[in-house]
Write a structure and sequence with these properties.
24% helix, 390 residues, 5-stranded parallel sheet, 18 strands, 10-stranded mixed sheet, alpha/beta, 2 domains, FAD/NAD(P)-binding domain
Length: 390
């Protein structure tokens, strides 16, 4: 039986990073470069206030819910190869080695992340799931308490890098609970083989939806449904032009505190290899969204019933932030107002891999921005020769 003193015991770190995907690893790298040290080891004694002996002045720890490196990449479907992913930007100062383009991304990317972790010696604790972040008291400059399934941490600030994988969007649709067939989300998809010979309705207009459409249609009858007619971009996507404009639009939304839309709502649909292959094979046929779901199929807008065995919801993801709910960061529109990576009304919390930094290059930049901003906010001395862009 635990006594009150034991329940209050917690470890201490100046900054707690939540998540060890690309954004979290970038944050860890830049915290080190900005003068933070790894938190003392797991075996060090602590007291009820979180004090640890001989602790450096500014420390950090990375808490990751996965049981190994790779973040959400560990869970991608088997047929998503390095040839077909949208591009993985190099981690800071750590170029990717040559990678077989036919290697599954769920193997190749975690291996790359693991090599980075070994080289950087980052203080990553896993598997540790953060369940809540709360304020220690009413002092706006006071500490935050990070509750996990492996104990509690007391910290001056939190860099949240939890991505979106654990919060799939599943629309509430009339009759969805009555469907007798199989329903799965992109998150649950493994391979087309498990759907062979079935009638599969794929719902969604994003990049993943078209990748799955092209793949599944090779072994099954596929019906593709979207709310809006997909708009395919003509010409090459230029990150330095179109990419910059898209980031500006997303940044304007988060600075206004507006909820952000899906990636494709900003970028438009690109003529990816999957889209071109589907068009070449004559399967890139979009249907307007069905009116309702029935036990054995979907009811079309004209009233006819289309038999369906499987509903595959390629309807995207949203930021995974339930552990931050106790802080009340969301406004009445469901958005979180931001200034750079910092929550506008809560300078102790930075969100990276969020909003305009959801891409891998954006996650790298956001990790650097958050580390430097927090160092300035917390008064951590700048190491000799350190510069923001290095």
């Amino acid at each position: 039986m635990r006594d009150a003193t034991e329940d209050q015991a917690c470890r201490r770190a100046t900054v707690v990073v939540v998540g060890a995907g690309q954004a979290g690893l970038s944050a860890g790298h830049h915290l080190v470069r900005r003068g933070f040290a790894a938190v003392p080891g797991a075996g060090d004694p602590v007291d009820a206030t979180g004090a640890a002996p001989a602790a450096p002045d500014a420390t950090f720890v990375v808490l990751d819910a996965e049981d190994g490196p790779g973040g959400a990449w560990r869970h991608r479907w088997a047929s998503l190869t390095m040839r077909t992913v949208n591009g993985i930007f190099d981690l800071p100062r750590f170029p990717k080695p040559p990678i077989d383009p036919d290697a599954p991304s769920r193997d190749a990317v975690p291996e790359y992340f693991a090599a980075f972790e070994r080289a950087e010696h980052l203080p990553i604790r896993r598997p540790v799931t953060v369940t809540a972040v709360t304020r220690a008291d009413a002092d706006p400059d006071g500490d935050l308490l990070v509750t996990t399934d492996a104990g509690r941490w007391r910290t001056r600030a939190v860099i949240n890098a939890t991505g979106t994988w654990n919060t799939p969007v599943l629309p509430a649709y009339p009759g969805r609970d009555t469907f007798r067939g199989r329903q799965l989300h992109t998150r649950d998809y493994v391979s087309a083989d498990e759907l062979a010979g079935r009638r599969v309705a794929i719902v969604g207009g994003g990049i993943s939806a078209i990748q799955l459409l092209e793949e599944v249609s090779r072994v099954a009858t596929v019906l593709w449904y979207t709310r809006r007619e997909p708009v395919f971009r003509d010409g090459e996507f230029r990150p330095e032009v179109e990419g910059r404009m898209i980031i500006e639009r997303v940044t304007a939304d988060v600075e206004a505190g507006d909820p952000t839309g899906s990636v494709v709502s900003y970028t438009g649909q690109i003529w990816s290899a999957s889209a071109l292959a589907a068009r070449e094979r004559g399967v890139l046929h979009r249907r307007p969204m069905f009116a309702s779901i029935e036990p054995d199929g979907v009811r079309e807008p004209d009233g006819t019933l289309t038999p369906v065995d499987v509903l595959l919801w390629a309807t995207g993801f949203k930021a995974h932030l339930p552990h931050l709910d106790p802080l009340g960061l969301r406004n009445d529109r469901g958005g979180i107002e931001m200034r750079g990576t910092r929550v506008a009304d809560e300078p102790r919390v930075h969100l990276i891999g969020f909003g305009p930094s959801q891409s891998t290059v954006g996650a790298n930049r956001a990790g650097r921005q958050a580390a430097w901003a927090l160092a300035e906010h917390l008064g951590v001395p700048r190491p000799t020769g350190a510069r923001p862009g290095r």
